[in-house]
Specification:
The chain is an alpha/beta fold. The chain contains 17 helices and 21 strands. The strands form five sheets. Strands 1, 2, 5, 6, 7, 8, 9, 19, 20 and 21 form a ten-stranded mixed β-sheet that branches. A four-stranded antiparallel β-sheet has the order 11-12-15-14, with helices on one face. The radius of gyration is 23 Å and the shape is globular.
Amino acid sequence: MRNDAVRTTRILFIGLDSAEPELLQRWMDSGAMPALAALRDRSAWGSAETPSGFGNGVAWPSFYTAADPSRHGRYYHRQLRTGTYETFSFDEDRDLCREPLWAALDRAGRRVAVIDMVRSPLVRLRHGIQLADWMSHDRILPTRSWPPELTSEVLARYGDDPLGGFSGAASRREADYVELCEKMVSRIRTKTDMCLEYLGRGGWDLFVAVYADPHDVGHECWHIHDAGHPRHDPELAARIGDPIEKIYVALDRGIGRMLERVGSEADVVFFTTSGMGPRHTGNFVLDEVLRRLEGARNPQNLRFVRQARAFARRFVPSSVRRRLRPYTRGSEEAVLAADRRRRRCFAVPNNSNAGAIRVNLVGREPDGSVRPGAEFDALCKALAEGLLALRNLETGEPVVEEVTRVRDRYHGDQLDGLPDLLVIWRRTARISAVGSPKVGELEEPFFGHRTGDHSLRGMVAIRSPGLAPGKLPAVSVMDVGATLAALLGVPLPDADGAPIRGLRSPPPPA
Protein backbone atom coordinates (compact mmCIF):
# COMPACT_ATOMS: atom_id res chain seq x y z
CA MET A 1 0.00 0.00 0.00
CA ARG A 2 1.31 3.48 -0.89
CA ASN A 3 1.46 5.94 1.96
CA ASP A 4 -0.12 9.40 1.96
CA ALA A 5 3.22 11.15 1.49
CA VAL A 6 3.87 9.31 -1.78
CA ARG A 7 0.36 10.07 -3.02
CA THR A 8 1.13 13.80 -2.95
CA THR A 9 3.86 13.55 -5.61
CA ARG A 10 2.52 15.76 -8.39
CA ILE A 11 5.01 15.11 -11.22
CA LEU A 12 7.53 12.30 -11.66
CA PHE A 13 10.16 13.12 -14.30
CA ILE A 14 12.18 10.15 -15.60
CA GLY A 15 15.15 10.98 -17.82
CA LEU A 16 17.29 8.55 -19.80
CA ASP A 17 20.61 10.04 -20.85
CA SER A 18 21.12 9.25 -24.57
CA ALA A 19 18.77 6.31 -24.96
CA GLU A 20 18.09 5.72 -28.65
CA PRO A 21 14.36 6.35 -29.37
CA GLU A 22 14.25 3.92 -32.31
CA LEU A 23 15.40 1.10 -30.03
CA LEU A 24 13.00 2.15 -27.28
CA GLN A 25 10.12 2.00 -29.75
CA ARG A 26 11.25 -1.38 -31.09
CA TRP A 27 11.50 -2.99 -27.68
CA MET A 28 8.31 -1.36 -26.42
CA ASP A 29 6.46 -2.81 -29.41
CA SER A 30 8.05 -6.25 -28.96
CA GLY A 31 7.00 -6.49 -25.30
CA ALA A 32 10.54 -6.31 -23.94
CA MET A 33 9.83 -2.94 -22.25
CA PRO A 34 6.25 -3.25 -20.99
CA ALA A 35 6.34 -0.46 -18.38
CA LEU A 36 7.48 2.17 -20.86
CA ALA A 37 5.08 0.85 -23.50
CA ALA A 38 2.15 1.23 -21.10
CA LEU A 39 3.28 4.76 -20.22
CA ARG A 40 3.57 5.72 -23.90
CA ASP A 41 0.11 4.39 -24.68
CA ARG A 42 -1.41 6.59 -21.93
CA SER A 43 0.62 9.69 -22.84
CA ALA A 44 1.01 12.48 -25.32
CA TRP A 45 4.29 11.48 -26.94
CA GLY A 46 6.58 12.29 -29.83
CA SER A 47 10.09 13.26 -30.85
CA ALA A 48 12.16 15.91 -29.06
CA GLU A 49 14.64 17.83 -31.20
CA THR A 50 18.00 19.30 -30.17
CA PRO A 51 18.92 22.77 -31.53
CA SER A 52 20.17 22.28 -35.09
CA GLY A 53 23.82 21.37 -35.60
CA PHE A 54 24.56 20.82 -31.93
CA GLY A 55 24.57 17.58 -29.96
CA ASN A 56 24.43 16.09 -26.50
CA GLY A 57 26.43 18.96 -25.02
CA VAL A 58 23.52 21.29 -25.80
CA ALA A 59 20.50 19.00 -25.44
CA TRP A 60 20.23 18.69 -21.65
CA PRO A 61 21.14 22.31 -20.75
CA SER A 62 18.65 23.52 -23.38
CA PHE A 63 16.00 21.29 -21.81
CA TYR A 64 16.48 22.39 -18.21
CA THR A 65 16.98 26.11 -18.99
CA ALA A 66 14.37 26.20 -21.81
CA ALA A 67 16.93 28.36 -23.63
CA ASP A 68 19.10 27.92 -26.71
CA PRO A 69 22.92 27.63 -26.49
CA SER A 70 23.52 31.23 -27.51
CA ARG A 71 21.84 32.20 -24.24
CA HIS A 72 22.88 29.51 -21.75
CA GLY A 73 26.42 29.36 -23.22
CA ARG A 74 27.16 25.62 -23.18
CA TYR A 75 27.71 23.56 -26.31
CA TYR A 76 30.39 21.03 -25.26
CA HIS A 77 32.38 19.98 -22.23
CA ARG A 78 35.45 21.77 -23.69
CA GLN A 79 35.02 25.15 -25.33
CA LEU A 80 37.22 27.93 -26.63
CA ARG A 81 37.61 30.67 -24.03
CA THR A 82 36.50 33.91 -25.68
CA GLY A 83 39.40 36.33 -26.06
CA THR A 84 42.01 33.54 -26.16
CA TYR A 85 43.03 30.65 -28.38
CA GLU A 86 42.87 28.02 -25.64
CA THR A 87 40.02 25.75 -24.61
CA PHE A 88 38.71 25.26 -21.09
CA SER A 89 36.59 22.68 -19.26
CA PHE A 90 33.08 24.07 -19.00
CA ASP A 91 31.94 24.16 -15.38
CA GLU A 92 28.16 24.32 -15.10
CA ASP A 93 28.31 25.77 -11.58
CA ARG A 94 30.51 28.62 -12.77
CA ASP A 95 29.98 29.09 -16.51
CA LEU A 96 26.30 28.37 -17.28
CA CYS A 97 24.50 31.64 -18.00
CA ARG A 98 20.88 30.59 -17.40
CA GLU A 99 19.46 28.94 -14.31
CA PRO A 100 17.77 25.52 -14.32
CA LEU A 101 14.00 25.58 -14.28
CA TRP A 102 13.86 24.11 -10.76
CA ALA A 103 15.40 27.33 -9.43
CA ALA A 104 12.28 29.18 -10.63
CA LEU A 105 10.07 26.39 -9.27
CA ASP A 106 11.77 26.66 -5.89
CA ARG A 107 11.25 30.43 -5.75
CA ALA A 108 7.58 29.82 -6.48
CA GLY A 109 7.36 27.55 -3.44
CA ARG A 110 7.37 24.21 -5.28
CA ARG A 111 9.10 21.30 -3.55
CA VAL A 112 11.58 19.68 -5.94
CA ALA A 113 14.01 16.72 -5.83
CA VAL A 114 16.64 16.47 -8.60
CA ILE A 115 18.71 13.27 -8.82
CA ASP A 116 21.66 13.18 -11.25
CA MET A 117 20.44 15.66 -13.85
CA VAL A 118 22.94 15.65 -16.73
CA ARG A 119 25.58 18.39 -16.54
CA SER A 120 23.51 20.58 -14.26
CA PRO A 121 24.66 23.23 -11.80
CA LEU A 122 23.95 22.68 -8.13
CA VAL A 123 21.09 24.87 -6.91
CA ARG A 124 20.62 25.81 -3.24
CA LEU A 125 16.98 24.83 -3.08
CA ARG A 126 15.00 26.20 -0.16
CA HIS A 127 12.22 23.64 -0.49
CA GLY A 128 13.92 20.57 -1.92
CA ILE A 129 17.06 18.53 -2.58
CA GLN A 130 19.55 18.00 -5.38
CA LEU A 131 22.14 15.23 -5.84
CA ALA A 132 24.67 15.73 -8.64
CA ASP A 133 27.39 13.58 -10.21
CA TRP A 134 26.60 10.43 -8.28
CA MET A 135 25.95 7.77 -10.93
CA SER A 136 26.39 9.88 -14.06
CA HIS A 137 28.24 9.57 -17.36
CA ASP A 138 31.95 10.52 -17.29
CA ARG A 139 31.84 12.11 -13.87
CA ILE A 140 34.05 15.22 -13.82
CA LEU A 141 33.28 16.62 -10.38
CA PRO A 142 32.93 14.64 -7.14
CA THR A 143 29.42 13.80 -5.97
CA ARG A 144 27.86 16.86 -4.35
CA SER A 145 24.46 17.84 -3.12
CA TRP A 146 22.15 20.37 -1.58
CA PRO A 147 21.87 20.23 1.33
CA PRO A 148 25.52 19.17 1.62
CA GLU A 149 24.83 16.35 4.11
CA LEU A 150 22.70 14.56 1.51
CA THR A 151 25.90 13.31 -0.21
CA SER A 152 27.21 11.46 2.82
CA GLU A 153 23.72 10.14 3.59
CA VAL A 154 23.32 8.64 0.11
CA LEU A 155 26.88 7.28 -0.11
CA ALA A 156 26.61 5.66 3.31
CA ARG A 157 23.33 3.95 2.47
CA TYR A 158 23.76 3.13 -1.23
CA GLY A 159 27.48 3.35 -1.97
CA ASP A 160 29.28 5.04 -4.86
CA ASP A 161 29.11 4.38 -8.58
CA PRO A 162 30.35 0.80 -9.24
CA LEU A 163 31.92 2.10 -12.47
CA GLY A 164 33.95 4.67 -10.57
CA GLY A 165 32.34 7.51 -12.52
CA PHE A 166 33.79 6.42 -15.87
CA SER A 167 32.87 3.53 -18.16
CA GLY A 168 35.49 3.92 -20.92
CA ALA A 169 38.34 1.53 -21.65
CA ALA A 170 40.87 1.36 -24.48
CA SER A 171 40.18 -2.35 -25.00
CA ARG A 172 37.97 -5.04 -23.48
CA ARG A 173 37.81 -8.80 -23.48
CA GLU A 174 34.59 -10.79 -23.44
CA ALA A 175 34.57 -11.05 -19.64
CA ASP A 176 35.03 -7.27 -19.40
CA TYR A 177 31.87 -6.62 -21.40
CA VAL A 178 29.93 -9.05 -19.21
CA GLU A 179 31.23 -7.34 -16.06
CA LEU A 180 30.42 -3.88 -17.46
CA CYS A 181 26.84 -4.95 -18.14
CA GLU A 182 26.44 -6.50 -14.69
CA LYS A 183 27.68 -3.31 -13.02
CA MET A 184 25.25 -1.19 -15.02
CA VAL A 185 22.31 -3.42 -14.10
CA SER A 186 23.37 -3.16 -10.45
CA ARG A 187 23.70 0.61 -10.77
CA ILE A 188 20.19 0.91 -12.22
CA ARG A 189 18.75 -1.14 -9.35
CA THR A 190 20.62 0.91 -6.75
CA LYS A 191 19.53 4.27 -8.17
CA THR A 192 15.94 3.05 -8.36
CA ASP A 193 16.07 1.92 -4.71
CA MET A 194 17.42 5.32 -3.70
CA CYS A 195 14.75 7.19 -5.67
CA LEU A 196 12.00 5.05 -4.17
CA GLU A 197 13.21 5.88 -0.67
CA TYR A 198 13.21 9.63 -1.29
CA LEU A 199 9.90 9.46 -3.17
CA GLY A 200 8.57 7.85 -0.01
CA ARG A 201 9.47 10.94 1.99
CA GLY A 202 6.73 12.56 -0.05
CA GLY A 203 5.28 15.95 -0.66
CA TRP A 204 7.13 16.49 -3.95
CA ASP A 205 5.76 18.82 -6.57
CA LEU A 206 8.44 17.53 -8.93
CA PHE A 207 10.70 14.51 -8.52
CA VAL A 208 13.46 14.24 -11.15
CA ALA A 209 15.47 11.04 -11.68
CA VAL A 210 17.95 10.60 -14.57
CA TYR A 211 19.76 7.37 -15.52
CA ALA A 212 23.15 7.58 -17.27
CA ASP A 213 23.35 3.93 -18.30
CA PRO A 214 22.07 4.27 -21.90
CA HIS A 215 24.84 6.81 -22.51
CA ASP A 216 27.59 4.53 -21.18
CA VAL A 217 26.43 1.30 -22.82
CA GLY A 218 25.81 3.06 -26.14
CA HIS A 219 29.36 4.39 -26.32
CA GLU A 220 31.03 1.18 -25.23
CA CYS A 221 28.90 -1.61 -26.74
CA TRP A 222 27.31 -0.34 -29.95
CA HIS A 223 29.46 -2.65 -32.07
CA ILE A 224 28.06 -5.68 -30.23
CA HIS A 225 24.48 -4.57 -30.81
CA ASP A 226 24.88 -3.39 -34.42
CA ALA A 227 25.55 -6.21 -36.91
CA GLY A 228 26.53 -3.63 -39.54
CA HIS A 229 29.25 -2.02 -37.43
CA PRO A 230 32.81 -2.43 -38.79
CA ARG A 231 33.92 -3.93 -35.44
CA HIS A 232 30.96 -6.27 -35.00
CA ASP A 233 31.90 -9.80 -33.89
CA PRO A 234 28.88 -12.10 -34.39
CA GLU A 235 30.39 -14.85 -32.25
CA LEU A 236 30.89 -12.47 -29.31
CA ALA A 237 27.34 -11.15 -29.73
CA ALA A 238 25.97 -14.71 -29.79
CA ARG A 239 27.79 -15.62 -26.57
CA ILE A 240 26.99 -12.59 -24.44
CA GLY A 241 23.81 -11.27 -26.04
CA ASP A 242 23.00 -7.61 -26.72
CA PRO A 243 24.28 -5.42 -23.86
CA ILE A 244 22.19 -2.47 -25.00
CA GLU A 245 18.96 -4.45 -24.89
CA LYS A 246 19.87 -5.83 -21.45
CA ILE A 247 20.40 -2.35 -20.06
CA TYR A 248 17.21 -0.96 -21.63
CA VAL A 249 15.19 -3.86 -20.20
CA ALA A 250 16.73 -3.27 -16.75
CA LEU A 251 15.79 0.41 -17.04
CA ASP A 252 12.23 -0.57 -17.91
CA ARG A 253 12.04 -2.59 -14.70
CA GLY A 254 13.25 0.42 -12.71
CA ILE A 255 10.79 2.73 -14.46
CA GLY A 256 8.00 0.27 -13.73
CA ARG A 257 8.83 0.26 -10.02
CA MET A 258 8.69 4.05 -9.82
CA LEU A 259 5.48 4.27 -11.82
CA GLU A 260 3.90 1.75 -9.49
CA ARG A 261 5.03 3.75 -6.46
CA VAL A 262 3.56 7.09 -7.57
CA GLY A 263 0.41 5.48 -8.96
CA SER A 264 -2.06 7.00 -11.38
CA GLU A 265 -2.53 10.27 -9.44
CA ALA A 266 0.83 11.72 -10.44
CA ASP A 267 1.66 13.28 -13.78
CA VAL A 268 4.62 11.56 -15.44
CA VAL A 269 7.12 13.07 -17.88
CA PHE A 270 9.51 10.70 -19.66
CA PHE A 271 12.36 12.25 -21.65
CA THR A 272 15.44 11.12 -23.53
CA THR A 273 17.61 13.02 -25.95
CA SER A 274 20.64 12.70 -28.20
CA GLY A 275 20.24 8.97 -28.77
CA MET A 276 22.84 6.58 -30.14
CA GLY A 277 24.13 5.12 -33.37
CA PRO A 278 27.46 4.03 -34.84
CA ARG A 279 30.35 6.43 -34.30
CA HIS A 280 30.89 7.80 -37.79
CA THR A 281 32.53 11.23 -37.60
CA GLY A 282 34.99 13.37 -39.51
CA ASN A 283 35.91 15.59 -36.57
CA PHE A 284 39.36 14.05 -36.29
CA VAL A 285 40.32 15.15 -39.86
CA LEU A 286 38.53 18.52 -39.89
CA ASP A 287 41.41 20.72 -38.77
CA GLU A 288 43.75 19.30 -41.40
CA VAL A 289 41.05 19.80 -44.06
CA LEU A 290 40.75 23.45 -43.01
CA ARG A 291 44.53 23.82 -43.08
CA ARG A 292 44.66 22.55 -46.66
CA LEU A 293 41.76 24.74 -47.75
CA GLU A 294 43.58 27.86 -46.55
CA GLY A 295 47.06 26.66 -47.53
CA ALA A 296 48.48 26.88 -44.00
CA ARG A 297 51.61 24.99 -43.02
CA ASN A 298 51.56 22.17 -40.48
CA PRO A 299 54.13 22.91 -37.73
CA GLN A 300 56.36 20.07 -36.56
CA ASN A 301 55.45 20.50 -32.89
CA LEU A 302 51.74 20.26 -33.75
CA ARG A 303 52.33 17.02 -35.67
CA PHE A 304 54.16 15.67 -32.64
CA VAL A 305 51.25 16.56 -30.33
CA ARG A 306 48.76 14.79 -32.59
CA GLN A 307 50.95 11.70 -32.90
CA ALA A 308 51.41 11.55 -29.12
CA ARG A 309 47.67 11.91 -28.56
CA ALA A 310 46.92 9.12 -31.05
CA PHE A 311 49.51 6.86 -29.43
CA ALA A 312 48.05 7.49 -25.96
CA ARG A 313 44.50 6.74 -27.10
CA ARG A 314 45.63 3.47 -28.62
CA PHE A 315 47.98 2.13 -25.98
CA VAL A 316 47.48 3.96 -22.65
CA PRO A 317 44.54 2.87 -20.45
CA SER A 318 41.84 5.51 -20.20
CA SER A 319 42.09 5.59 -16.40
CA VAL A 320 45.79 6.50 -16.67
CA ARG A 321 45.10 9.14 -19.33
CA ARG A 322 42.51 10.78 -17.09
CA ARG A 323 44.98 11.02 -14.20
CA LEU A 324 47.68 12.48 -16.46
CA ARG A 325 45.40 14.93 -18.27
CA PRO A 326 45.85 17.87 -15.83
CA TYR A 327 49.62 17.66 -16.39
CA THR A 328 49.62 17.25 -20.18
CA ARG A 329 46.76 19.49 -21.23
CA GLY A 330 48.54 22.79 -20.54
CA SER A 331 51.45 22.08 -22.89
CA GLU A 332 49.14 20.69 -25.55
CA GLU A 333 46.91 23.76 -25.38
CA ALA A 334 49.92 26.07 -25.69
CA VAL A 335 50.97 24.37 -28.94
CA LEU A 336 47.42 24.47 -30.32
CA ALA A 337 46.98 28.13 -29.32
CA ALA A 338 50.19 29.15 -31.09
CA ASP A 339 48.96 27.45 -34.25
CA ARG A 340 45.47 28.97 -34.04
CA ARG A 341 46.91 32.50 -33.81
CA ARG A 342 48.40 32.13 -37.31
CA ARG A 343 45.30 30.68 -38.95
CA ARG A 344 42.27 32.28 -40.60
CA CYS A 345 40.06 29.56 -39.11
CA PHE A 346 40.51 26.40 -37.09
CA ALA A 347 38.55 23.47 -35.66
CA VAL A 348 37.35 23.55 -32.05
CA PRO A 349 35.97 20.64 -29.99
CA ASN A 350 32.38 19.49 -30.49
CA ASN A 351 30.21 16.38 -30.35
CA SER A 352 30.86 13.78 -33.04
CA ASN A 353 27.72 14.51 -35.06
CA ALA A 354 29.15 17.83 -36.27
CA GLY A 355 32.51 19.51 -36.62
CA ALA A 356 32.89 23.03 -35.24
CA ILE A 357 34.89 25.88 -36.81
CA ARG A 358 36.03 29.15 -35.30
CA VAL A 359 37.01 32.07 -37.54
CA ASN A 360 39.97 34.17 -36.37
CA LEU A 361 37.87 37.33 -36.31
CA VAL A 362 39.26 40.85 -35.96
CA GLY A 363 37.90 42.49 -32.79
CA ARG A 364 37.02 39.20 -31.13
CA GLU A 365 40.21 37.13 -31.25
CA PRO A 366 43.47 38.66 -29.93
CA ASP A 367 45.26 38.29 -33.28
CA GLY A 368 42.23 38.32 -35.57
CA SER A 369 42.99 38.19 -39.29
CA VAL A 370 39.50 38.10 -40.84
CA ARG A 371 37.46 41.32 -40.80
CA PRO A 372 33.75 41.16 -39.92
CA GLY A 373 31.32 41.75 -42.73
CA ALA A 374 32.15 40.98 -46.35
CA GLU A 375 35.46 39.24 -45.62
CA PHE A 376 33.90 37.01 -42.97
CA ASP A 377 30.99 36.18 -45.30
CA ALA A 378 33.31 35.34 -48.17
CA LEU A 379 35.42 33.03 -46.00
CA CYS A 380 32.35 31.22 -44.67
CA LYS A 381 31.08 30.74 -48.24
CA ALA A 382 34.44 29.41 -49.43
CA LEU A 383 34.71 27.03 -46.48
CA ALA A 384 31.21 25.71 -47.09
CA GLU A 385 31.98 25.08 -50.76
CA GLY A 386 35.25 23.33 -49.93
CA LEU A 387 33.70 21.14 -47.24
CA LEU A 388 30.64 20.19 -49.30
CA ALA A 389 33.00 19.03 -52.08
CA LEU A 390 34.63 16.44 -49.80
CA ARG A 391 33.99 12.80 -50.63
CA ASN A 392 34.23 9.71 -48.48
CA LEU A 393 36.98 7.81 -50.31
CA GLU A 394 35.54 4.45 -49.22
CA THR A 395 32.02 5.07 -50.57
CA GLY A 396 32.43 7.92 -53.05
CA GLU A 397 29.56 9.79 -51.41
CA PRO A 398 29.67 13.31 -49.96
CA VAL A 399 30.98 13.32 -46.40
CA VAL A 400 29.25 16.55 -45.33
CA GLU A 401 25.46 16.98 -45.21
CA GLU A 402 25.35 20.68 -44.41
CA VAL A 403 27.48 23.60 -43.27
CA THR A 404 25.56 25.87 -40.90
CA ARG A 405 26.39 29.45 -39.96
CA VAL A 406 25.61 29.73 -36.27
CA ARG A 407 24.93 33.46 -36.43
CA ASP A 408 22.15 32.87 -38.96
CA ARG A 409 20.21 30.83 -36.40
CA TYR A 410 21.13 32.12 -32.94
CA HIS A 411 21.28 35.64 -31.53
CA GLY A 412 21.74 35.42 -27.76
CA ASP A 413 24.17 37.26 -25.52
CA GLN A 414 26.54 34.27 -25.37
CA LEU A 415 26.88 33.96 -29.15
CA ASP A 416 30.57 34.91 -29.16
CA GLY A 417 31.36 31.80 -27.14
CA LEU A 418 29.93 29.47 -29.81
CA PRO A 419 31.58 28.20 -33.01
CA ASP A 420 31.01 30.19 -36.20
CA LEU A 421 30.31 27.21 -38.45
CA LEU A 422 28.97 23.70 -37.80
CA VAL A 423 29.88 20.93 -40.23
CA ILE A 424 27.14 18.29 -40.11
CA TRP A 425 28.60 14.95 -41.20
CA ARG A 426 26.87 12.36 -43.34
CA ARG A 427 27.01 9.45 -40.93
CA THR A 428 25.69 6.62 -43.06
CA ALA A 429 29.14 4.99 -43.32
CA ARG A 430 32.51 5.01 -41.60
CA ILE A 431 34.64 8.10 -42.28
CA SER A 432 38.33 7.20 -42.38
CA ALA A 433 39.59 8.81 -45.59
CA VAL A 434 38.31 11.93 -47.35
CA GLY A 435 39.31 13.85 -50.44
CA SER A 436 38.48 16.49 -53.02
CA PRO A 437 40.31 18.20 -55.89
CA LYS A 438 41.27 21.13 -53.64
CA VAL A 439 42.12 19.16 -50.47
CA GLY A 440 43.63 16.11 -52.10
CA GLU A 441 43.41 12.79 -50.32
CA LEU A 442 43.58 12.68 -46.54
CA GLU A 443 43.58 9.67 -44.27
CA GLU A 444 44.07 10.03 -40.54
CA PRO A 445 44.16 7.14 -38.05
CA PHE A 446 41.33 7.27 -35.53
CA PHE A 447 42.04 5.45 -32.28
CA GLY A 448 39.00 6.33 -30.19
CA HIS A 449 37.66 3.35 -28.24
CA ARG A 450 33.99 4.31 -28.44
CA THR A 451 32.02 2.45 -31.09
CA GLY A 452 28.73 4.29 -30.61
CA ASP A 453 27.98 7.97 -30.46
CA HIS A 454 25.08 10.37 -30.36
CA SER A 455 22.28 10.72 -32.83
CA LEU A 456 20.11 13.82 -32.65
CA ARG A 457 16.97 11.81 -31.95
CA GLY A 458 15.03 12.39 -28.74
CA MET A 459 11.68 11.36 -27.29
CA VAL A 460 9.19 12.77 -24.81
CA ALA A 461 6.06 11.21 -23.30
CA ILE A 462 3.76 13.13 -20.92
CA ARG A 463 0.98 11.45 -18.97
CA SER A 464 -1.19 14.25 -17.61
CA PRO A 465 -4.83 15.36 -17.65
CA GLY A 466 -3.39 18.53 -19.20
CA LEU A 467 -2.56 16.75 -22.48
CA ALA A 468 -4.67 14.34 -24.50
CA PRO A 469 -2.94 10.96 -25.18
CA GLY A 470 -1.67 10.38 -28.71
CA LYS A 471 1.15 11.27 -31.09
CA LEU A 472 2.54 14.80 -30.85
CA PRO A 473 4.22 16.82 -33.60
CA ALA A 474 7.98 17.11 -33.06
CA VAL A 475 8.86 19.53 -30.25
CA SER A 476 12.07 21.22 -29.19
CA VAL A 477 13.90 20.05 -26.08
CA MET A 478 13.44 23.64 -24.88
CA ASP A 479 9.66 23.17 -25.13
CA VAL A 480 9.88 20.10 -22.89
CA GLY A 481 11.43 22.19 -20.10
CA ALA A 482 8.85 24.94 -20.54
CA THR A 483 6.04 22.35 -20.45
CA LEU A 484 7.36 20.85 -17.23
CA ALA A 485 7.22 24.27 -15.55
CA ALA A 486 3.78 24.97 -17.01
CA LEU A 487 2.42 21.72 -15.54
CA LEU A 488 3.27 23.22 -12.14
CA GLY A 489 1.79 26.59 -13.00
CA VAL A 490 5.13 28.42 -12.95
CA PRO A 491 6.08 30.62 -15.94
CA LEU A 492 9.73 30.70 -17.01
CA PRO A 493 10.72 34.31 -17.70
CA ASP A 494 12.71 34.98 -20.86
CA ALA A 495 12.53 31.36 -22.09
CA ASP A 496 13.03 30.30 -25.72
CA GLY A 497 10.89 27.20 -25.24
CA ALA A 498 7.10 27.29 -25.00
CA PRO A 499 4.65 24.81 -23.41
CA ILE A 500 3.52 22.09 -25.81
CA ARG A 501 0.43 23.17 -27.75
CA GLY A 502 -2.81 21.86 -26.33
CA LEU A 503 -1.60 21.90 -22.72
CA ARG A 504 -4.48 22.80 -20.44
CA SER A 505 -3.91 24.92 -17.35
CA PRO A 506 -3.12 22.85 -14.26
CA PRO A 507 -5.17 23.04 -11.10
CA PRO A 508 -3.76 25.30 -8.37
CA PRO A 509 -1.18 23.60 -6.12
CA ALA A 510 -2.32 22.09 -2.86
